[in-house]
From TrEMBL:
GO molecular function: anti-sigma factor antagonist activity
All residue ranges annotated as the STAS domain in the record: 12-111
PROSITE patterns referenced in this protein's UniProt entry, alphabetically: STAS
Pfam families: STAS (PF01740)
Family recorded in the similarity comment: Belongs to the anti-sigma-factor antagonist family.
InterPro entries: Anti-sigma_ant, STAS_dom, STAS_dom_sf
Protein name (Swiss-Prot/TrEMBL): Anti-sigma factor antagonist
Superkingdom in the source lineage: Bacteria
């Protein structure tokens, strides 16, 4: 499992890259889906701490994981969201579907 994906119990933490764009989206989509197939994931937390840019493919990654996790009754959250990313989440309407937490010091759990 990639070091940017950490599973603790039924929760998957996903540390997102600086640019969440078409170049990185497929890797995040594929790895998170693989983990969700093999683990009993009920919650996904996307950590935007290092993310400064997100395009429509990044929005698609978040929306796709949201749809998948809702099928099992789970939830999706975003943390460490800067103003640029918050604007993208708001304009896309994702802010109505997932919780956006203003946790500035959240650290990824250690494996």
């Amino acid at each position: 499992m990639d070091q940017n994906f950490i599973v603790k119990g039924t929760c998957m933490f996903v540390k997102l890259p600086e640019d969440l764009d078409c170049k990185n989206a497929a890797k995040i989509r594929n790895e998170s889906d693989k983990i969700m197939e093999n683990e009993n994931i009920k919650n996904i937390i996307f950590d935007f701490k290092n993310t400064n840019f997100m395009d429509s493919t990044g929005i698609g990654v978040i929306m796709g994981r949201y749809k998948n996790i809702k099928l099992v009754g789970g939830n999706v959250s975003a943390v460490n969201v800067n103003s640029t990313i918050e604007k993208m989440l708001t304009l896309s309407g994702i802010h109505k579907l997932i919780s956006i937490n203003e946790v500035s010091g959240l650290k990824m759990p250690v494996k």
